[in-house]
Amino acid sequence: MISILLRRFFLISLAVLFSPVAQSELIIEITKGTEAAVPLAVVPFGYSGSTATSPVNLSSIISADLTRSGLFKALRERDMLTKPTTANKVNYRNWQALGQDYLIVGSVNEVMGKYQIQFQMLDVFKRESLLGYRLTVKKNELRKTAHHISDLVYEKLTGKKSDFSSRIAYITTTKAGVNKRKLYKLLIADADGFNPRAIASSWEPLMSPSWSPDGNKIVYVSFENKRSAIYIQKLSDGKRSKIASYKGINGAPSFSPDGSKLALTLSKDGSPDIFVLNLKNKRLLKLTKSFAIDTEPSWSPDGKSIVYTSNRGGKPQLYLIPSQGGRSSRLTFDGDYNARGQFSSDGKSIVMVHANRGDYRIAIMDMATHTLNVLTAGRYDESPSFSANGDMVLYSSKKAGRSVLSAVSADGRMHQSFTFDSGNVREPSWSH
Amino acid sequence: MKINKLALTFIASTVVLTGCASTDEKDASLLDTDVKTAQEALITSGLNNNAVSGEQFMTQGLSQSELNANAMNNGVSSLGAEFSDPANPLSKQTIYFKHDSSQIQQDFISVIAAHAQYLATNPGQRVILEGHTDELGSREYNIALGEQRAKSVFSILRSQGVSGQQLEVVSYGEEKPASEGVGEASWQLNRRVEITYQVQ
Asked: What value of ipTM does the predicted structure carry?
């Protein structure tokens, strides 16, 4: 089991590269924490090597990851009484006194440019090791390795898959050039906001980025030819293909869970309707045929149904339709505006933009009971996107007239804001 | 808790600089693409592989001033004096809407009729009907709403004798607001259809 995990771990690590592009700085701030978070301490890792300090501060990355999940509260370094780097140096009483449940200790040893990392997670009360790994990585894999350690810790303690190694895509607008024209950019970054890089830029709008299930491609809408078209762009080499440029709207693209199809909105026949495009044989299936607005399709995790927005009842509400075609059924009845639904990865809930009397907020509907839980208090919240394990929802909101990214835990208890130094940031999409 | 990324970004840059030498050939080409993206900040990484040659997407090859000049040429400069006479309904080229509605309000029917008459008597003249919305609600829904607004104007023009060949509908939803502010005063300026006369 461990060897399989380790192998997977190593393969993933090898596949990762850093990009040198430094875009706007991103600061993540936890604006509302939760009382129930499990206290743990990630002790600064020991280091020996040819440089004075480790090129990457692994323990701080791990602390930040675990804290961001909302389930853990990492002890501040200045509150630590001792800083052991191996299990046999740990005085458990110290950590019990500090109220810590778990302890992560480790070290990094650089030899000839290779970084040997070892770490252990300890149960402070049982005084035993729960997890321990030793691995060797290259310098440019250190940051990714820290995220993988966070993954291992999180998965061990919660039994759930973690999101720390996932990525986010989003759109920014900034004023650029001599005439201060609006420049649209599509960026991708690590889940902690680190390492943002632009994969597309245009003077005309870029919209609706969404990940392929394998995380290798992004589909998005571009108005670069003064009309909308949908493109799929490979992240490895930046090559892209034009998927749809029909007359009218080409919008709201969304990959099927197996990556073989794309749900999208086209208005080529008149009103905007939901279509499914088979990416292999290019066949187009028209799913909805109403005279109203039908848009924003998103797949259920089993690929069998598609949730979408329609105003056929007068106001925008969410509907469900079989992805092979069939009859639509209305899903939402609370509030006068429910739009842009997205399923959680377990299919048990749908996140959406929910408005009542003019306040646009993020809400989650339980698919079993159809009850709605409003997670945010904003007036202009939009574009919710579930993290891979469904723990967090990333969305865009307004702060002092600017669009910013925010995140909220699926239970609504933990809130974070992602702040960039300039411009507007919106339409976040989390890789799965 | 605050995590300032500045220091970390610096570290990552150094990592890459020193890391290049040790990566294998395939990885090195990938890094190369990224480096180009860094240098030419306005260009997609994909454009370096001429995958999209011939399209307007890239800013490569066109200077900022050329781009701006292109944008200026789309104005109404070659049209007659009636378009700049405030007393003439043709001088009004923006139709405004109520929130989440694509219904033409009474006030604008005469404006659209004036454009219909002009276009019907000038069958060579083409216009783009650009639909826009306020920033409230979801973006793709607003694309659809903007299109419905433009199509409302389209229908009236068609019913008053304008040829479909003269008209093109495009919706930008909330992506190109006329006013960037937050609040009803801005929003009502943004819920609009712009009748954009094309240079012949």
From this structure: 0.88
